[in-house]
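Bug #77: duplicate submission created two jobs. Keeping one. Sequence:
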Amino acid sequence: MNADNNGFPIDIPFLKLLGMRCLKVADGEGVVELALEAEHMNSWEMAHGGVTMTMLDVAMAMAGRSADVHGRGVVTIEMKTAFMQPGRGTLKASAHCVHQSTT
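Kept job's structure:
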């Protein structure tokens, strides 16, 4: 992992802007972390839903990328979630690849 990229195997400028760190990208797993700052918050002083969704999206992408023997990138086609509680403090998202296809 590259320290210049906050632990991500590739340069993703948007994630640098957010301050997100990659804790794991191997064996079909992806784990990312973000210490929330004022710029990540909504008007209720909790994590903006877009920040949470970005973390989920990136964790899934890292899991998918690490499961591919060719290291190809992935694209999210559809994503849905339900927020159970507000995000505060340091957030961590983890994903595990459960299916791999050629498309």
